[in-house]
Amino acid sequence: MFKKLLCLAILLISLSVKAHQTNISTTMLVEKENNTWVLQISASLTAFQQEIKLHYANTPYKTPEEFKQMVLEHLKKNISIVFNDAAALQLTDGFVQLGHETKVVFKVDGIPTEQHKLLVKNTAFKDIYKSKSALILLKKGYAKERFVLNEGNKHTLALKAKDNKFVVSTTQEASILSYQNLFVILCIIGMGFLIKSVFVAKEIEE
Known about the structure:
By secondary structure, the protein is α+β, with helices and mostly antiparallel strands. It has helices spanning about 1-20, 45-55, 65-80, 170-205, and strands at about 25-30, 35-45, 80-85, 90-95, 100-110, 115-120, 130-140, 145-150, 155-160, 165-170. It is globular and about 50 Å long.
């Protein structure tokens, strides 16, 4: 019994620490009944406050309700969800639950019954240093998947459905690999120039 309570306490402490980390957020897309979907964004209140103060500096909020409205507008401007290469979906019926860990929930309209591709973009916290968001997808009959949106992928992920789960699209993988290959090539070229300059210097000395 003591071990269970200890584990529970450690878990709660861990969640509390994450909730107070400004650069960490969660983007969760969840399928409900009758092909209805909701999007939940969770982050520290400080993270939301920093973004709102930055983007609404000319019209600062005066009440909690004004702050909530700005949060909804900011998220709508910076979140894009696209299925099967169609148009970006509308986020509706949004509400904000303020707290140390602030949660925002939207209804996502128009998601097709069959999903083959998914493009998710969330730049709502990109101005925060080393910002990253855990992207969690909960679809009935699919494995629970967790990805990361960060500066490295421009807070955007292209996914595809495969074997009852979502995986990173090979196109995006290829793009990541191409950048890595370019870096390696540039390093090799740089080393080549360095070696050549050493030999040239030796020839001049001789």
